[in-house]
Design a protein that fits this description.
single chain; alpha/beta; 2 domains; 12 helices; 10 strands; 14% strand; transferase; transmembrane helix; Nucleotide-diphossugar_trans; transmembrane; EC 2.4.-.-
Length: 320
């Protein structure tokens, strides 16, 4: 049986940490430790962690605020596991999460891996709608990784596993990067010749944002980060990464041309209906979630797309 170290960086989210730690008490595979790294929070979660000290093998540390990458690297250095499992504090794991990882590693060994995310039944309507936007085939779910992937799998920091010795050898996450540090790290893992895999059964429930404005900013940063990463690793920029930007240009173009050719609006309406029907069916006929999913999907595509375009313009046109 492998021994795992679960690293949880946290900043001002004690309630979310409580939910995550509770889900870890239910694991069917129990050979693991937990390291909670408080990243300079003004609302600490120490009292939450203390409630689980008799139920879990857990350690709590506080460090000056330096961002999640600094916290993850700190946790990795003091961990004891053969494999590190890195989770965001706004995640919840199913009971079989670690069991699925152990089984997957036995069947298909990997140096680094990750799993998909989905919405927990207890999430509110907006969280479910945003989860749909981030995982649907009709948005960018195929790019991020689900049961099928369009490119080599790049583990993401909300649900990432890696051999501890590989993490230490590669110096972990680049702490100078504000966004996209997980893709940067995954790229370095792959370029160093290590094997990465997607473990579909090692999924997490990811709460994400609860407001569209916050969600827009989050995905906008992701679009900007993709251009920054392409400057460091030109070969990593693929056509699929440009699709949200193409969507933005296409929708604006349709709206302008629709003034002269009104029938073009039907193409946009068809896509809206596709999203609505697919999301409604995904959530067992919940029309409310279907409506919110349309808004969340457009927010996701426009946020990522505009961030991508703006960063590309600064890079190519302004040489910044």
């Amino acid at each position: 049986m492998r021994y795992y170290s679960i690293i949880i960086p946290v900043y001002n989210r004690p309630d979310e940490v409580d939910d995550l730690l509770y889900s870890l008490t239910l694991q069917t595979y129990t050979n693991f430790e937990i390291l909670v790294i408080e990243d300079g929070s003004t609302v600490p979660c120490q009292s939450v962690v203390e409630r689980y000290e008799k139920k879990l093998k857990i350690r709590y540390f506080t460090i000056p605020n330096g961002g999640p990458s600094v916290a993850r690297n700190y946790g990795a250095r003091i961990s004891e596991g053969e494999y590190l499992l890195i989770l965001d504090s706004d995640c919840i794991v199913p009971e079989t999460y670690l069991e699925a990882i152990e089984q997957s590693l036995n069947e298909t060994p990997a140096d680094a891996f990750g799993g998909p995310d989905c919405a927990h039944p207890s999430f509110n309507a907006m969280q479910k709608a945003i989860s749909y936007a981030m995982t649907s085939f009709f948005t960018t779910g195929g790019i991020r990784g689900g049961k099928k992937k369009l490119d080599q799998f790049y583990p993401r920091s909300f649900n990432m596993g890696i051999r501890r010795d590989v993490f230490i050898k590669l110096d972990g996450f680049d702490t100078s990067m504000r966004y996209g540090e997980d893709i940067d790290f995954s790229t370095r893992i792959i370029q160093a010749g290590y094997v990465t895999r997607l473990f579909p059964n090692a999924y997490v429930y990811h709460k994400r944002r609860t407001r569209l404005k916050q969600f827009f900013r989050q995905v906008e940063h992701s679009g900007e980060a993709r251009i920054v990463l392409s400057q460091k690793y030109p070969s990593t920029l693929k056509l699929v990464h440009c699709l949200p930007a193409v969507f933005v240009v296409g929708v604006i173009g349709l709206c302008l041309l629709g003034i002269f050719f009104p029938w073009l609006y039907s193409l946009l309406l068809l896509y809206v209906l596709l999203l609505f029907v697919d999301a409604t069916c995904a959530y067992r006929g919940n029309i409310g979630i279907g409506v919110l999913a349309v808004a969340a999907s457009f927010t996701q595509l426009f946020g990522y797309g505009t961030g991508f375009i703006r960063a590309w313009w600064r890079w190519k046109m302004k040489k910044k």
